[in-house]
């Protein structure tokens, strides 16, 4: 997988090209007079950070594959026009996990829950929870199976090394694999079939 080859990376590349486009635009940007270019560059940086988070999570989840886990990265979701699933994981026990990767800056502050809300430093990240709930419901509908949604956080410290908010586990990315393994049940004969259905019904996102 090449750098920024996933959907977040492709979006970042488009925005970077837009910000750089043309000699006149580059000159205005250097002079600080091209606000549109500056906004595009900032948005591209955010998408690049998201792509980095997804790659890091994918690399960690890949360590599960030799043990019978199925890992599907950057998947389209039936019924969602623009949303995609960062990672869909099917365990040997037949459990389905939807993992949302977040590359959030440590400088902004810790990720924590308060008042039933998700916070990153002083910023309310409720939008991330709502998006994840929407995606989870559609994946459950497609697979006709329960789906557990999780948020895996890179860089920013996470309260208590993991916590729940609105029923969603929020965990440091480096603890994700350990937690998935610890929460799996006995091997299920239906896990292979479920993994095949997930591959069929959740194609790579384009």
Task: Kindly describe this structure.
The protein is α+β, with helices and mostly antiparallel strands. It has two domains: 1-50; 63-201, Trna Endonuclease, Chain: A, domain 1, CATH 3.40.1350. The chain is 42% helix and 24% strand. It contains six helices and nine strands, in the order αααββββββαβββαα. The strands form two sheets. The chain has a six-stranded mixed sheet with strand order 1-2-3-7-9-8. It has a three-stranded antiparallel sheet with strand order 4-5-6, covered by helices on one side. Strand 8 (163-165) and strand 9 form a beta hairpin. The radius of gyration is 18 Å and the shape is globular.
Widest sheet: strand order?
A: 1-2-3-7-9-8
Structural class: alpha+beta
CATH architecture of the largest domain: 3-Layer(aba) Sandwich
Largest sheet: 6 strands, mixed
CATH class of the largest domain: Alpha Beta
Distance between the termini: 15 Å
* Integer count of domains: 2
Strand content: 15-25%
Secondary-structure element string: HHHEEEEEEHEEEHH
Rg = 18 Å
- Helix tally equals 6
Give the tally of β-strands.
9
The portion of residues assigned to helices is 40-55%
Q: What characteristic shape results from the CA principal axes? A: globular
């Amino acid at each position: 997988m090449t750098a920024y080859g996933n959907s977040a990376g492709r979006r970042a590349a488009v925005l970077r090209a837009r910000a750089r486009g043309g000699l006149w635009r580059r000159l205005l940007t250097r002079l600080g007079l091209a606000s549109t270019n500056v906004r595009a560059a900032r948005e591209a940086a955010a998408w690049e950070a998201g792509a980095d988070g997804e790659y890091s999570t994918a690399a960690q989840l890949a360590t599960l594959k030799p043990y019978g886990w199925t890992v599907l990265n950057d998947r389209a979701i039936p019924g969602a026009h623009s949303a995609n699933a960062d990672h869909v994981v099917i365990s040997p026990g037949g459990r389905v996990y939807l993992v949302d990767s977040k590359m959030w800056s440590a400088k902004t502050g810790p990720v924590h829950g308060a008042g039933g809300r998700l916070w990153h430093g002083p910023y309310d990240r409720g939008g991330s929870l709502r998006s994840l709930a929407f995606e989870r419901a559609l994946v459950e509908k497609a697979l006709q199976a329960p789906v557990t949604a999780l948020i895996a956080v890179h860089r920013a410290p996470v309260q208590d090394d993991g916590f729940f908010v609105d029923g969603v586990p929020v965990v440091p990315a480096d603890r994700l694999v350990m937690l998935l393994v610890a929460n799996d049940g006995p091997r299920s004969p239906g896990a292979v079939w479920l993994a095949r259905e997930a591959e069929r019904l959740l194609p790579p996102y384009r």
